[in-house]
Amino acid sequence: MTLTAVSLFSGAGGFCDGVRLAGWNVVCAVEADAQACRTHAANFSDVALFKGDIAGFLQDEQPGVPSLRDLAARKIDMVYGGPPCQGFSQIGPRNLADPRNRLYEEFVRVVRLLRPRAFVMENVPNMVAMKNGHFKTRILDAFREVGYSRTAILPVVASDFGVPQHRRRVFVFGIRDRLPFAGDFEETIKALVERE
């Protein structure tokens, strides 16, 4: 059985490449930047690409892009992506009111509408650390409210996974409530990542 995924904030497709290499079928991607869209389309010509503001995804129609009804009928297994990190980054002003810091809400909206079995959201560590966890609390509460109370936040260093950069990242994993799962979800995620 091939697992299906939807990519948000897709950029040129680095995350998509990893998901595909892991054996998933990426059925749709979303990206607003025109240059990144061109690169993504060249690298993933078989993946439907919603070009534009993520707020319009699953609301506005674009030729060749599946609708909410189409994606819901496919029973998407995973939604993944990395919202823009500039508002959280250590090299920026880290302004709580930066509108980019609220784009996780669009990620949550898509998860609410598609009801995937799981989601994976990636960002810089400051997304969950900034201002004493200001956004961490809001992000976890938002996922809990849409039916994903089992979540795990895992910091990683890219070089530990073969990437030639000492880049720190944080991943937020979640599975849909009422799916069968034995054991502690957070401990299981940590053990899986450490095994890699």
What is the structure about, briefly put?
The chain is of the alpha/beta class.
Model description:
34% of the residues lie in helices and 21% in strands. The chain is an alpha/beta fold and 196 residues long. It contains six helices and seven strands; from the N terminus they run βαβαβαβαβαββα. The mean pLDDT is 88.
What's the SSE blueprint?
Elements: E1 4-8, H1 14-21, E2 25-31, H2 34-43, E3 48-51, H3 68-74, E4 78-81, H4 104-114, E5 118-123, H5 126-145, E6 150-157, E7 168-175, H6 185-195
Parallel strand pairs: 1-2, 1-4, 2-3, 4-5
Antiparallel strand pairs: 5-7, 6-7
Shape: globular
Percent of residues in helices:
25-40%
Which regions have little confidence, pLDDT < 50, spanning 5+ residues?
A: none
| Number of distinct beta strands | 7
Output the strand order for the largest sheet. 3-2-1-4-5-7-6
Name the average pLDDT: 88
Share of residues in strands: 15-25%
- Ends: how far apart? 23 Å
**Which structural class do you get from the secondary structure elements?**
alpha/beta
- Profile the largest sheet: 7 strands, mixed
